[in-house]
Structures
1.
Amino acid sequence: MKKSSPVSRSGRFTNGPGADVAQFTESISFDHRLWRHDIAGSLAHAAMLQKIGILTRAELQAITTGLTAIGEEIAAGKFAWKPELEDVHMNVEAELTRRVPAGAKLHTARSRNDQVALDMRLWLRDEIVELGDELRGLQQALVGLGAENHAVIIPGYTHLQRAQPVYFAHHLLAYVEMLERDHGRLTDCFQRVNICPLGSGALGGTTLPLDRAFVAVQLGFVDAKGRPCLTQNSMDAVSDRDFAIEFCAAGALIAMHLSRLAEDLILWAGTEFNFIRIADAYTTGSSLMPQKKNPDIAELTRGKTGRVYGNLIALLTLLKGLPMAYNRDLQEDKERLFDTADTVRACVRLMAAMLRHTTVNAPACQAAAGDPALLATDLADYLVRQGMPFRQAHHAVGAVVARAEELGRPLNQLTLAELRAVNPAFGDDAPATFNLTAAMAKRNITGAPGTKEVARQLARWQKAIGGKTAAPRS
Ligand code: ARG
């Protein structure tokens, strides 16, 4: 099948591409989702062309009406995309030109190279804002679950071995901190996405007197003071995709954080820990084992992290060998970018929903946190308070632990005499070290998992981002 494309090829080419070539080169099957931003860009470009005298008012009016109607048809699912027209840009423009003769003037001083760079920036701006909101939702879910269970203590782990007690909320707030940095990275990325490339043409700008600032302001490419943000080098503007890669890198970090959270939740939901219960609606069963209730959302979130990393590496590799300026290789950027945006957004949203339907098994947490070995370091701190150098105190408590193992008793069941037999520095008040409530009250420096500090952190986050529930303990 040979068809000639009415928009870009007429003139130089006598024939359109063959069907296999068209199928290989088309991008409409995935870039059609840029349509809203493509039309917004064209409306701004047309308004500017009228302002500088290239379009008459009537022509601008006809183009605006035509583009608006096409937009409505696309939104209603009534627009027939034509693969032989390659991409979203040519589909929209060809249809406009078919309806409105002035449509043939729309592409004045514009190339698909600066057009696609523009569309991607416009699209990504919206995605960043929406992903940022989703991240806030996840933070709220974490803060909410922490606040609801503010009195629950669990073992904190290193090497997946019980280490020291922490409030359950403290553990969750660790993820809130990570997500806050992720949010900051998105905000930062937004600044570099929010720069208008239109006017760069194919690579070398134009001889026509475009008003780039007008277009930028129309499309909201402005800084905090309302000043237009314009790319400053036409070749850079059409050929680099670092703004997309930066987003994919920020997305990869979000996915990594979500994957760690997923791993914790999977462990906690398992019978061995049994710290949490995920509501039925957010788990799945086994087709074979009737008793199973699997944390598939968390597992898929952990699994999808791989493809989000893959997208980042794919884009970095895509760009690394490209000569200046635009190369068709760049068309391969979109699916990776879209996939990162879609995947990360879905993971953030589903993890938040799952957390809002997760309850804590307080007795199981209490039993685990009651392990007196978690307070072995507190016993060493006790000796430090008696004036013993920490290295020596560590050694002494190590000997106490060995003695308890020998006697087959938990650490807090040694008598004062048995403690003193190991080291005479243990006084009458040494056994009180194993009072968990008192132990938690002592951990109160900034960032510590102690009673007052965790309450302060919960309150800080509730104030900063809101949360669905209960005031923290004071
Ligand atoms: N579909 C193309 C892309 O995604 C648009 C730019 C095409 N430019 C060109 N010179 N063929 O990159």
2.
Amino acid sequence: MSDTLFDMNASDALEKARSRYKKLIKEILHHDAQYHGEDNPEISDADYDALRKELEKIEESFPALISKDSPSTKVGSVPSKGFKKIKHAVAMLSLGNVFSEEELDDFLVRVRKFLGLSDDDLVEITAEPKIDGLSCSLRYEKGVLIQAATRGDGYEGEDILANVKTIVDIPHQLPKGVPDVLEVRGEVYMRRGDFIKLNEKQEENAKAPFANPRNAAAGSLRQLDASITAERPLYFFGYALGDVSEIFSDTQWGIREKLKEWGFTEANPSALCQNAKDIMAYYGSISEVRPDLNFEIDGVVYKVNRLDYQERLGFVSRAPRWAIAHKFPAEEAVTILNGIDIQVGRTGVLTPVARLEPITVGGVVVSNATLHNADEIERLDVRIGDHITIKRAGDVIPKVLGVVENKRQADAKPYEFPQVCPVCNSKAIREEGEVAYRCTGGLICEAQAVERLKHFVSRLAFDIDGLGAKIIEQFWQDGLIKTPADIFTLQSRDKDSLTPIRAREGWGDQSARNLFESIEQKRMIEFNRFIYALGIRQIGEATAKKLAATYGDLKTLRAAMKAADDHEGEAYQDLINIEDIGPSVADDLVGFFTEDHNLELLDQLDEVLGIQAYEAPSVGDSPVAGKTVVFTGTLTQMTRSEAKAKAEMLGGKVAGSVSKKTDYVVAGEDAGSKLKKATELGVSVLSEQEWLDLIGS
Ligand code: IVH
């Protein structure tokens, strides 16, 4: 080309450069806004990078043109790393659900049982709306709002302070007299009317509408540019506390009142209930007024009113024992079954998925529903082409309820469940006692391998920003990532590649750099997350944590699992002694750790990762941190469940039977064989009172 900027006479060139430069600035700023502000890039990263390079080249050749508006002079103009992460001082967990009066009764019985209360003891319960928005934690220090975070995975969220400051009913400064540290938790939401207006505006601007107020609130809050959040009408209801330096109420109801006094809005209608009858009356009345509320709710939340009870009840896994959500009944609809696809999961389970004629249920378009397994298809006798009833409850995957019988086509044939894996063609078998068919392809089954990788990077596992299910699939297809360890060699292999990631369609320098950086951030990983990431059958987040707490590091775990292959040996006893690990889970674990290809995978991962040895939750100088405790006999001052929960909270490990490794046996009244064994083995035996003295309660 002869007509470039660089082979003309000097003044022509300068003029042409000036005009191109101005255009480029405008264009780049526009794309910055689309990318960071709207989450809606119009051009590929590669094209964007080309514009930036052109701009830089002009600035290099014609420094006199450099304008203060240039994106190159703005330090923060490429904030593509997204939001800063914030560790929650107190975890932000979720709530268990009930869907019926019976389940509610079960909850109330559980609470009483845990606390050792009789039916006559009063347990007051607060009841309030369950707002369908986005949970958020606000931290005030000396009354000043200094931090705001999303829930994230419950332990770490994103810093959204700038955005939260634009929400009109969130105070930036609290009145005198509030605790020095005060974390207020609640829900950011959009009102119904504002949601409709926002969607009209989206349509006018030829932008996709939001599916519901919740999505609109989330989309508005998670804007890197807070000025966009400021334009969206968001509100906040406070409903719980996080970290607080000082206790200022004995009850949940008292917290509500204080929050109101300090300038927060509380969701209403609410009620303080004395019993199940009051609770159901509240539930009935809120179901009636639900359509008239100006915010969306998907149920109600009940909380034990007394905070000392809440404290004693504590948490199980990811939800408090002292609160529960009562969800509104699922919504149902009739549609046509267009087909049944079989999905292959990471452990080879074949799950039938109903492909539906799309239909709106409760404001959301549904085109897939689960059919669970072969038995379920047979039980319902669903056939392709049938009219079927589907049900959608909250966020769970919709399910098929049944067939509308009189609409069946005469030639509809019963569905035959495949006997081979649809992906790798290996035989599918159903083991005795199992409901699911499983692909026997193991390592040769691509579907399983990809699903394992997806699990490996999922939120509770490695949680790598920018490496979600879609990218995993693409990289798998292109041979870039075939095993978990490949993720951590991606960057070094990319350096020598003829077709580097930055040159892929939809990618560019910046996004490739971001990906490598977020992978780097996860090279150090906590041991419990690592175990969970391996995707071993039956090993969920909670069991992974227990394994990490028991064995501490990978080397010890590997050796112990190898030794546990001998069912008569001590290592096996130790393993099934861990709470929630029975023979079936133990088999899956030992099975995993005795397969050569898994050991190879562990070696590879050990080489590329820094796996951090498990650290017991910080519990000050708890005398039982890391100690193994067995409770036996009848306790009189607390229930067995409460005692166990407390020991675990203090960093102890609770075991079901006594061995040489037991540190304490706490013997209540009428203790029998376990006490005897403890005495034989010389394990310390404590009375209930001695135990309480030891833990200082
Ligand atoms: S209490 C430790 N109260 O529902 C429990 N949660 O499905 C603290 N939510 O994560 C939560 N309205 O985001 C509570 N009145 C309310 C709520 C509420 C909505 C959300 C919250 C929670 C989720 C669980």
